[in-house]
């Protein structure tokens, strides 16, 4: 499978200027290609092909005085900008026609030099390389110093150089990684994600929520207030904006590190992992929006999924309509109502439950039942919790 390995790079001031030039050239080529296709569509002309587009916005454009500076950067960077434009249109058309699943995708938009992130991509045709001194050699930019946190497992097929809103530069390599099957373990777990605790496992373990954004709010509030007092367009406003962006970057990095460490630990300890398919976008439109975004459930679940595939583990999602919190894990009776404030409850059968641990246990049982059914086994062997498609009220995504 393909993975991305990202590293921090430290370009010199001259290399930063060269990278900024490359970012600008790629942005102009992308915008010229988008404008050309939009103009053709408005005039009722056929869709402009990639060959014609490359000829007009790169080859011919370099001959014009107003675009002669396109020749100062690698041609591969410009070609990849065109490829990005084509991919954006294809994704939009596939979304409109229904061939692409998931939420609808908007048509491509023009790129701006004020965007939070600037990026260029070098493929093997650009002949980028890693020198013996551990530097990244990029055409027409030079040897860029890198901060190696780990070795590359195989030669990269491409590298994307990224500049984020905080002014940091990164090199992101696309690497082909072979699956590494970990030693088998008999443990399986169900995970109930929440806000009081980030995750509750079916074995009773509760993982506290770090609340990285909440902990940084005091400092962010001060930095944001300083930014609002700066005059628009001034150099001081630019410095203040960078300070805010750097603080947000620290929060993002800390949250990502927490997700990586926890997801790796869970995958290594368990042969099968089951989680609830939460409606994160719906929850992000409620009064809990800030806490939901601070938790970062979607990214964490994505890490669990790809790491399970990488290490030969089983991963599955349980339907969001499955009443995991209201279902008694002892007798299978579904409670009629379960407000969020109720953290413990007693079933009619006499069993007393911790809401989150009970939900995690039910998610584990439902995941096992789905797995058995997919393998041709019985859906509900023996006494097990009710299936999500059985009669009963449909719980909300926050149940």
Task: Describe the structure in your own words.
With 399 residues, the chain is α+β, with helices and mostly antiparallel strands. Helices cover 40% and strands 18% of the residues. The strands form three sheets. The protein has a seven-stranded antiparallel β-sheet with strand order 2-6-7-1-5-4-3. It has a five-stranded mixed β-sheet with strand order 10-9-8-11-12. A two-stranded antiparallel sheet has the order 13-14. Strand 6 (158-163) and strand 7 form a beta hairpin. Residues 378-399 have low confidence and may be disordered.
Major sheet description: 7 strands, antiparallel
* Helix/strand class: alpha+beta
User: What is the N-to-C order of secondary-structure elements (H for helix, E for strand)?
Assistant: EHHHEEEEEEEEEHHEHHHEEEH
Q: In one word, what is the shape? A: elongated
Strand content: 15-25%
Radius of gyration: 26 Å
- The poorly predicted ranges are 378-399
Task: Going across the biggest sheet, name each strand in turn.
Answer: 2-6-7-1-5-4-3
Q: What is the first-to-last residue Cα distance?
A: 35 Å
SS element count, helices: 9
Mean pLDDT, to the nearest integer, reads 90
Secondary structure: helix percent: 40-55%
> How many DSSP E strands?
14
